[in-house]
Task: structure prediction
Amino acid sequence: MDEATKATLSKVPEVTLSFWIIKIAATTLGETGGDSVTMTLNWGYLAGTAVFLAALIALVAWQIATKKFHPFLYWATIISSTTFGTTMADFADRSLGIGYTGGSTLLFLSLMSVLGFWYWSQGTISVNSVSTPKVEAFYWVTITLSQTLGTALGDWLADTGGLGYEGGALVFGVGLAILAAAYYWTNISRVTLFWAAFILTRPLGATVGDLLDKPVSHGGLNLSRPLASAALAIFIVVCLLLLPQRAGRYQAEINQTP
Result:
């Protein structure tokens, strides 16, 4: 048998600058959207978490059932995961009383466990390999945990760390700049840098979202949560219409018989 390689189209987008622009906007929308339901509509964290979990499960099932990458479906699922992550982190940190430090630690350990099991099962955790239902399941569990962890980290740094929302956004922004520099000027694993950046964009979005909609007395700008959410949603739709969204490619090994 001869071994060859075959370029397989992934069911997630190619990681480009437009990917990160939309990702940060989506994470900010997740924060303002989650707060709109749990606080502005006063549904509470438990009900909000249940609603967004149901939406997330439905969208992930739809995403896995499709045969190829669909930009609007993919980003709707990302927004659903980040909104669920917002309400879930708030529910765990506040309603269950484990605090930001405890919640962040538990979520970090859970995320590392899933990434480790994914690598053990597939030999890679590259997002470009997301082309089968099994790998997609790993991917969306990892995405959801990273979104929830990001929310908890953002709240932990802003509140427990005492930096406030502006300070938290600055810290995470600097962290992303360092990762970008590492991408261009070092040989650090691109897969490692991707997941580190993916995790950090969530607390950046969380702190920016909190900065927009929290009361002035808590360090925010006290903007309308529904209006901020609508503006972010429109921005994302415009980006999807104007910026190219292509499926990633993965060089997979295949066996050929003569």
Remarks:
- The chain has a mean pLDDT of 82.
- Helices lie at 17-40, 45-65, 71-95, 99-122, 133-160, 164-185, 190-213, 225-242.
- Residues 2-256 form one domain.
- The beta strands are 2-13, 247-256.
